[in-house]
Amino acid sequence: MDGLSDRGSIPLSSTWQFCLTGPVIRGLLSLKNKHTGFEMKRFIATFLLFISVFALTGCANIFNAGNNGPTAAPALGDDPTQSANAQKLLQFRQPAAGETVAEIEVEGYGSIYVKFFEKLAPKAVENFVTHAKQGYYDGVKFHRVIADFMIQGGDPTGTGRGGESIYGEPFEDEFSPELEPMRGALCMANAGANTNGSQFFIVSETAAKVQELKKYVEYKGYTFTDYLKAGYNTELSDEQIEKFLLYGGAPWLSGHHTVFGQVYKGFDVLDRISVADTDNKDIPLKPIVIKTIKITEYTAPAE
Fold first, then answer.
1. d(CA 112, CA 293)
2. Predicted model pTM
3. To the nearest 10°, the Cα dihedral for 275, 276, 282, 288?
4. In this structure, is residue 121 part of a structural domain?
């Protein structure tokens, strides 16, 4: 359930997602049959240099000068997913009055607020909401945090290998063309197709990071579409890719993880958790604990 295999909840290489190396090495090396041995040697040499540059600069943005450290978390309302254009999309639309929502209260950080897609992912929503109401997630850690990529929790054992669904067995994936693992998406973690339990993750990857990855892939002579298809067996249209470029997210996870909710408030909290210090296994050095998850009905703020 913790992504121990390549098609787990998050690919093994995701430790490097922030520095681009994980998706790059998997996606580009899968295209090796298109190149001669000489080309591959040149690629490997260039790639090792790329890793060295990132190691020495602290994963600085090599495409945009001046960005030599973590950027400040966007203020509420400033996030691209909350823009006027984003609000035209079902996924980013603000909840309606009376709609079921959740407040994920994280000790020492604050709260992340999410809405649900009950009609498009009914089993995943029922599973999460029921667990939350029964206190299943109370005191549970975010056991896996990858900078500017995602935060993962929902396992009472805290190991990434535990947790059960309310159905007593793993349940099937639920996919919809209207929902993608874009920034702020609440997704089911899994260990492969149709193996959903209690674990979930929230995508924090920004549009800037997706744009950075696309630039590097194209710099190496490939299209972003071919890279996603060859490296992750993910086929996306130009329109779908454009959404990730505008709003952020993890396009390589599209079609592999159920999206059943979306953050509508608390991106600043999500971003602070996302950059918490971790060890080499992405485990936070200081426990990040879910105090409780409150399920309520949305009330529109006063004008």
1. 9
2. 0.80
3. -130
4. yes
